[in-house]
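Journal club prep — side note

Before the paper discussion, L.F. wants everyone to see what a predicted structure for a comparable chain looks like in token form. Sequence:
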Amino acid sequence: MARTCKKAVLRRDLVTSEGRRLAARGELVDLTTLRTFVARREVQPELRLFRTFVAAAVLEGLDAPPLRHLVGSDAARSEVAEVLADVRFPTAVWRELELTQLQDPARFQHGIWSAIVSARLFSVALGTTVGAARAVASRAEDFDVVDRELVVPGLDPRHDGLKVAQISDVHLGASTPDARVERAVRTINALNPDLVFLTGDYVTFSRHPLKRLSRQLSGITAPTYAVLGNHDHWIDGPAVRQAPEADGYPVLQNAAVARSFHGAPLWIVGVDDAQTGHADVARAFRDVPAHGTKLVLAHQPRSADQLPANASLVCFAGHTHGGQIDVPGITSLVARSIGQPYLRGAYRVRGNWLFVNAGLGYGKGGAALRLRVPPEIAIITLRAG
């Protein structure tokens, strides 16, 4: 394993500056070293070494003969391994690992080893999955349209049939073509929903897409509301907020608005991002009555755990990308180990509905890989229970 890790650091240049520094000093980043750091619970070193090791583990699998034919050149394999090691891989989101590490060290250690195992198994799965090759060759602007009905106990009968479209995790930039976002807007308009919800992470790690974000999101004809995600806050929350609001889409940061549909009041509640410490559920619900139709936007699915119980509400969330790389039996294990039980689709949480959108960004030939979890928009039709 030491030999593989050295190869990953020196030949592929995949890892952090810390990893390159260790390599330059001739120090091999191997599993034994990593176990030592984990045992000591040394915060930053173990995180850096974990990323280095995951890159090496994935790269070793990508060097296997089946994948050489699928992925192609050394440069392509390095790029794929870097994307995965950058923890856009089985939901082991880097920031979530950092938070879990501080809050629950035992769960953090379990998450590390689960993620390493899934790095290995992912390499095997990718090498034998024909669908992976088809996904790479697919048109970059393609996405799925998920059509779902939810029966909501307590929904005002006058809101039966209310149709909500949801876009989440656009991640505008190199990993999500502009054409896909433009097509999503056209598709939503053609489907003629009553409401459209945008549930955060419009950018990733760069401010550059902010220049065109408003233009890409513009043109939605139905009433549209938005919340911010963790990436938006990491980049510049106020600056990101300006883009949807320039298009006339209110951004609800722990706030609620009331609308009337078919003569009955409807409350739309926005809960700000929990991962970055901006969520305040009590403030968001301060003026919301106990009865009546309530629709909640929240980037983080776990925000549903904090909402009023049995409140006849539907929460729309994103963040997880549906796991992004779905290795059966492994992706969900990793997600649960880092405290994320809600990956994709509809869940009953505390007597309410939660719908987790797999996101519009990444995959379909973009720089960030998806496997068995295509990008999507969702159309949710509400039925009175």
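L.F.'s comment for the group: The first strand starts at residue 144 and ends at 152. Keep this in mind when we get to the figures.
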